[in-house]
Design brief:
By secondary structure, the protein is α+β, with helices and mostly antiparallel strands. About 30% of the residues lie in helices and about 15% in strands. It has a single domain, classed as Glutamine Phosphoribosylpyrophosphate, subunit 1, domain 1 (4-Layer Sandwich), CATH 3.60.20. Helix 2 (about 65-80) packs parallel to helix 5 (about 160-175) and helix 12 packs across helix 13 (about 320-345). It binds glutamic acid. Glutamic acid binds near residues 404, 405, 446 and 498.
């Protein structure tokens, strides 16, 4: 795994006067209140942000369905969570249709140029330094978010794109209240944001960090949304907006005085015109009688969560001690990551054993590795899903490609029983750091999710760059059905930790008797075939830690992991919306008509 990126300032802050997008604060405003759990009728929305959740609720209240509300919420997140989402990025949309009882998905992943090949991140035959790729046009993939919204509305929505973008336009025009989390995320990016005048103008008002309690307005984004609403997404894939995106990524508009080198990208207008979302079958795992649906490759989310569940179905987790529960959760994650790193990439470029990774025979062959009294040694070699052999392995262990941690997950349900679980991203917090001038949004740096070179010499790497290829993701938007009806849905940001977070929420809810809100709030750990498990301080403080270490588990401080949201259907027809009580400054859950 590569070291976490740090952005090193190349020059002191520019002293030039910078036009502020922040309205002068007469008195510091308070951000709208956030509630981590809501229960009631008429539909539910959970996201990381109160304005975005309110946008979704407004659409539901006016008679829109879950898909309309999900797009409205996502568009609002593009305003209030611009470092984690927006039309400069991509995502994965999972939908339960109450009328048909079917789960469908849209893969709106960012895509490499048709002119990209496996040498995309090589210079003079050597891999580019990760930090140089992060803030560059080279890492910008063709954005898929606008196309995802349009396709979801066309297939299952009841409102036009223009209508569902309206709440977000209003938020962008009037501004949102800067809170501590937004200021912290800006500070993390300040050293590179200041080198791009368009980014600086938007996110460093007056040249400094946005003040907590001030309003950050984004009239450019409001205008961009209005243009998408009136002209349709062709404005992005075939029109002026697309031309602006291409110009920006091919000639990153860096301040010449900054001395920053931002490598140009390859994506051109023909790549934008050729972009298509993929509708594909969801992954499906039968776990203790629950039907768990998620996203298939190009994301590794559904196969990896599903494989871990298959392995864990060999233990009665409800009956285990809490030490054995954690131990088995960590071991199943370790094994599933060994397999994902070897086998999963964009299925249009190599054979990806999606069905085999999820097969009961493969799960059984991997479950037999788990011992109740000792810990497996990482890195663990992958198994062969094509020829499952009890406790067998298939070649050397394969390490993980580093994935940034940003992204936003939203979960929506409506009065008719439809459910959306949708994770959208611009890759790491702040994406490429490059704002499209005059358009009000950041471009993604999703192509850094490719392996720059094969992770393990001599072992085929399904995640090398290629023409029009999608980098492997960990995004895991999940919907759980029971007897064909929604039980709950969840998902999270967090790069590769998304998979372990979603797995832990599923186990907490299904096996360990936690409510959805408790399962989301519980202390997290993320084992991804490494010697040391990244764990939150709350996990490190668990009384079970000593017993887990006695079994051979090793832990390191992983900081805060993920920011999940969820919705759950109660037997009496009410919905629960659930979000984080603390992580990322707390999430926001709401229902249309609260019942308590
Ligand atoms: N690039 C990551 C992925 O697709 C998402 C980043 C994040 O979730 O924070 O898996």
């Amino acid at each position: 795994m590569r070291a976490l990126v740090r952005f090193v300032p190349t020059l002191a802050l520019s002293t030039a006067l910078i036009c502020s997008a922040v309205a002068p604060a007469r008195a510091a405003a308070a951000a709208p209140p956030k509630v981590p759990e809501a229960v009631g009728y008429g539909g539910a929305v959970a996201s990381v942000d109160a304005d975005a959740t309110a946008a979704g609720i407004e659409v539901l209240r006016r008679g829109g369905n879950a898909v309309d509300a999900a797009v409205a919420t996502a568009a609002a997140l593009g305003v209030t969570e611009p470092y984690s989402s927006g039309i400069g990025g991509g995502g994965y949309f999972v939908y339960y249709n109450a009328r048909t009882g079917r789960v469908s998905t849209i893969d709106g992943r960012e895509t490499a140029s048709r002119r990209a090949d496996s040498s995309l991140f090589l210079e003079n035959g050597k891999p580019l330094a990760f930090a140089d790729a992060v803030t560059s046009g080279l890492s910008v993939g063709v954005p898929g978010t606008a196309a995802t919204w349009q396709r979801a509305l066309d297939l299952w929505g009841s409102r036009s794109l223009g209508e569902v973008l309206r709440p977000a336009e209003k938020i962008a025009d009037r501004g949102f209240v800067v809170d501590q989390t937004f200021q912290d995320q800006t500070a993390l990016n300040q050293a590179r944001f200041k080198d791009f005048p368009a980014t600086r103008r938007l996110f460093l008002p007056g040249g400094g960090l946005p003040v907590i309690g001030s309003r950050l307005r984004n009239p450019d984004l409001a205008a961009t949304y209005r243009e998408l609403g009136s002209k349709g997404v062709d404005a992005l894939y075939q029109g002026d907006l697309g031309a602006d995106i291409v110009r920006t990524l091919q000639h990153p508009p860096v301040d010449p005085a900054s001395g920053r080198v931002a490598r140009p990208g390859k994506v051109d207008q023909s790549d934008l015109a050729a972009y298509r979302v993929h509708q594909q079958q969801p992954t499906h795992t039968d776990y203790r009688g629950y039907d768990v649906y998620s996203i298939a490759p190009s994301s590794s989310g559904g196969t990896t969560v599903g494989e871990a569940l298959g392995i864990l179905s060999h233990s009665d987790l409800a009956a285990q001690s809490s030490t054995q529960y954690y131990h088995r959760f960590l071991e199943a994650s370790r094994i599933a990551f060994a397999d994902r790193n070897r086998w999963v990439g964009d299925p249009r470029f190599s054979q990806v054993p999606t069905r085999q990774l999820l097969s009961p025979a493969f799960a059984a062959s991997r479950a037999c590795l788990i011992s109740p009294d000792h810990t497996l040694t990482s890195p663990l070699a992958p198994g062969d899903p094509y020829h499952p052999a009890a406790c067998g392995s298939s070649g050397p262990a394969v390490t993980e490609t580093y994935e940034g941690q940003s992204t936003s997950h939203l979960t929506v349900a409506d009065r008719w029983g439809n459910v959306v679980s949708y994770t959208l991203t611009i890759e790491q917090t702040g994406g490429s750091g490059i704002t499209v001038p005059g358009r009000g949004f950041l471009l993604n740096n999703e192509l850094t999710d490719f392996s720059f070179v094969p992770n393990t010499p001599g072992v085929p790497d399904p995640n090398l760059p290629g023409p029009s290829k999608r980098p492997r993701s960990s995004i895991s938007p999940t919907i759980v059905l029971h007897d064909g009806k929604p039980f709950f849905a969840t998902g999270s940001p967090g790069g590769a930790t998304i998979i372990t977070t979603v797995l832990q929420v599923l186990l907490g809810r299904i096996d360990r008797g936690l409510s959805l809100e408790q399962a989301i709030a519980a202390p997290r750990a993320s084992q991804r075939n490494a010697t040391t498990t990244a764990a939150e301080p709350g996990f490190l403080a668990l009384p079970e830690r000593a017993a887990l270490e006695a079994l051979g588990q090793r832990f390191g401080d992983g900081g805060e992991i993920g920011a999940a949201t969820g919705v759950e259907r109660l037997p009496d027809g009410r919905w629960i919306a659930a979000a984080e009580p603390v992580r990322r400054g707390g999430g926001s859950a709401a229902v249309v008509r609260p019942s308590r």
